[in-house]
Amino acid sequence: MADDGVRGMREKQENERRGKGLKQYIADRRLAAVSLVLGVLMGLMILLGIRYSRNELIYRTAGQFLGQLAGWVVCMTVMVWAICVGLDALGRGWSEIRDFQFRKFLPVNSYQKRTQARRKKECEDQGSSRDVESQGWESKQRAAKNLDLGTWLKWMFLSWCVYLPVFLAVYPGIYSYDASAQLLQFYGKLPLTTHHPLIHTLYLGLCMKIAGRLFHTYQAGMALYALSQSFFMSAVFSLCLCRMKARRAPRWLCVASWAFWILNPYLTVFSFVTTKDVLFGAFFLLAFDTACCLAEDPEHFWRGMCQKKEDLDKERELDKEKNPNGTGSRKEVGKTGDWLLFFVSVFFMCLFRNQGIYVFLFFVLAVCLFLRKKVYRRNWFIGASLLVAALWYVLSGPIPTAFGVGKGDAREMLCVPMQQLARIYHEVPEKLAPEEKKYIETLIDPQALSEYVRVNADPVKSGFHTEVMQADMGRFVRTWAEIGKRHPDIYLDSFLMGNWGYWYIGDNQYWISYILYDGAYLEEDLNILHITRNSHFQALSDWLREATLTPAFQSVPMLSVLLNQAFPFWLMLFAAGFAVWKCRAYEILPMMLLLGCWGTLLLGPVVSLRYALPLIYCVPRLLEMIVGLTGKR
Q1: DSSP class of 498
Q2: From CA 119, how far away is CA 121, in angstroms rounded?
């Protein structure tokens, strides 16, 4: 009778929910507020992005600006609301759709019938209270444990079915970006500094030296680097896919994630490029994936840390008492959690790019501010984070200095202010005082000032004298602040012009050329090892060149969005809003890693696809978060 009452109550609640239909979403104030906030942000980014992509004003008065903004806000608010409602409705009905399709209409093969009959007979013979479905779940768990390595190898095999032809097409690899400068430092032609991450410089140089001695050609060294890096990338992607499967992500999402990581021509080509951003992005992806576990399941995240054998035995006994039939908790007691993988990934993330430590510290600050519950073990997290930061400091500061390694140039962090000063000097010099103009010419070479372009700080940065700034830091800050106080509009316009590609999903992607598919700095005095392209699959090489150097995908509506480097930021905003609507704001915490990385991109010299790789790699995990929230309350 009790079971009938519970069943009747559930049916009544379900009928009430279905009877409300769309009305429950229309009356949802939280959903309306989230949609409006996201609509305002997205509408503003679209309107400003159109202006900067065309490099011209599309509105002449404040009234025109507000009118166009209102139109975009209404459109984006309605779109966000409709997507939220659609995803939630699909999530609530997904189990019914799945059961309807697979249980009623798909045939059951003879093997499944024999397996079900055997399990039913075992239950009857043992007199167990566990049902057939529970035993089936346990057998699947045992199979999953035994096939973890097999699943990983399966994804690796599928990945290399794609990677191997690409490697033959770009053989021996794509010698590009800073590789020439790093090898000049490695072989003593230039002073060794921490301007480029030492770990990446040593990794690239050792690949060249080892393979060069074994095979008597540096082409083999380039091939060794490309193969080892691409193998590591495929291993990381396969590991993330295995973790997705362990979290019971939908199969279609796992397949779509594999296609995004492996079949995406931009990401596939970058796996063979000599740039530190690739490995930095891989460790960033692992850090973000495990940070999501900290927010979603902190008990699992910390499992195995500082636990004694007696405590583990007690946990097992308690678990048996609570679940005498083995049908309750399905978590493994005592298994090591994700904390070790998280901190190792963060450590190497910091080593492979100097901005990594700032992103990590920003995330630690967010943890200190927002994680207050005891279950998250905030003190443990802060202590381990400080240990990682201290270890990074020792390996990137005192130890390199003791071996005579010089420090990197501080001008790399000053792209925004130097561009703002150059903008004033180059375009409106009459608004500068004589002493300000003279100081800017002392700070930056006049030749570099004459080569100023709005969307790239590299020409100005090449002529920036860091020693002049460091000699009188107060004067530099004072001059920059006083000019900005008089012309805040020019400063703001200069800042947005330098980074609009990271927040606007548009069709004028000038930064696509920064993939540098055919290599860079291949001049005789820079390419000292004489690395050259020797493709063994010319047809595929020609297709990859065309696909990566020309924005042909702009003609395909979905691809023009998915392959845009601003898409991860938009997806992050939507995921955060979706989590707030579902009253699960704590799941925003791991997105602080993405926000911190995105913030450092805004301060960079140029909008480039390789700088956005860490964010792009995290797109499948963001989609998994959104899918996991659908249908929940």
Answers
A1: T
A2: 5
From residue 140, alpha-carbon distances to 147, 151, 330, 632 in Å are 10, 14, 12, 25
For residue 259, CA distances in Å to 98, 121, 628 come to 23, 42, 20
List 456's β-bridge partners, or say none.
453, 606
**Could you give the CA distance from residue 553 to residue 237 in angstroms, rounded to a whole number?**
24
pLDDT digits (tens, 9 = 90+) for 167-215: 999 999 999 888 999 999 999 999 999 889 999 999 999 999 999 899 9
Q: What is the pLDDT of residue 3?
A: 55
pLDDT digit string, tens, across residues 87-126: 887 776 544 433 433 344 334 444 444 445 555 555 455 4
As given in the structure block, the two tokens for residue 195 are 């301007």
Taking the CB of residue 149, how many other CB atoms lie within 10 A of it?
A: 9
Q: Enter the pTM of the model.
A: 0.85
DSSP 297-330: -HHHHTTTTT--HHHHHHHHHHHHHH-TTS-S--
- Rounded CA-CA distance 590/295 in Å is 7
CA nearest to 600, candidates 358, 384, 417, 376? 358
Can you tell me the mean pLDDT for 320-330?
46
Helix (H, G, I), strand (E, B) or coil at 546: helix
Please name the residue that has the structure tokens 């920036």: 464
Distance between alpha carbon 569 and the CA centroid of its chain, in Å? Answer: 9
- The residue written with tokens 């493709």 in the block is 535
Kindly report whether the peptide bond that precedes residue 429 is cis, defined as omega within 30 degrees of 0. no
pLDDT, the chain, mean: 81
Q: Residue 28: which of 570, 578, 586 has the closest Cα? A: 578
**236 touches 253 (CB < 8 A):** no
Whether pLDDT at 622 is above 90: yes
What would the pLDDT profile of 477-496 be if each residue is shown by its tens digit? 999 999 999 999 999 999 99
Residue 453 — φ and ψ, nearest 5°? -130, 150
- Reduce the DSSP state of residue 482 to 3 states and report it: helix
Closest CA to 614 of 585, 572, 577: 572
φ, ψ for residue 297, nearest 5 deg: -145, 75
SS (H, E, C) 212-272: HHHHCCHHHHHHHHHHHHHHHHHHHHHHHHHHHHHCCCCHHHHHHHHHHHHHCHHHHHHCC
Report the distance separating Cα 217 and Cα 205, nearest Å: 14
| Predicted confidence (pLDDT) per residue in 129-158, tens digit | 444 344 444 444 443 443 478 888 999 999
